């Protein structure tokens, strides 16, 4: 799955999830997906802004997480996924990457 298709999938999924009251950023290699959940709905963009939680990985690992082939906890423990900021917010992400 390419970055563009990941962006499309995250945008569609974010529209179906209640706003979570914070900004969340995915850094996939050189690309960024920012989900702004501070308003009435989640707004997805490619703006590289400050966020309460930043999750860094590559597109292959993201796709493995999305498909269920990789356990999120194992991905973090093995260093394939790095989380900076609000860990509680990171735990809410399952609904965005399903």
Describe the structure.
The chain is an alpha+beta fold and 98 residues long. It has one domain: SCP2 sterol-binding domain (Nonspecific Lipid-transfer Protein, Chain A), CATH 3.30.1050. 34% of the residues lie in helices and 24% in strands. It contains four helices and five strands, in the order αββββααβα. It has a five-stranded mixed beta sheet with strand order 3-2-1-4-5. A hairpin with a 6-residue loop joins strand 2 and strand 3. The chain is globular and about 35 Å long. The two termini are 14 Å apart.
Structure characteristics:
4 helices; 98 residues; five-stranded mixed sheet; Nonspecific Lipid-transfer Protein, Chain A; 24% strand; 5 strands; alpha+beta
Number of helices: 4
> How big is the Rg?
12 Å
The CATH class, by name, is Alpha Beta
Strand content: 15-25%
Question: How much helix is in the residues?
Answer: 25-40%
CATH topology: Nonspecific Lipid-transfer Protein, Chain A
Quick synopsis:
By secondary structure, the protein is an alpha+beta fold. The protein has four helices and five strands.
Task: Itemize the secondary structure elements and their pairings.
Blueprint: H1 3-15, E1 23-28, E2 31-36, E3 43-45, E4 53-57, H2 59-67, H3 72-77, E5 82-85, H4 87-91
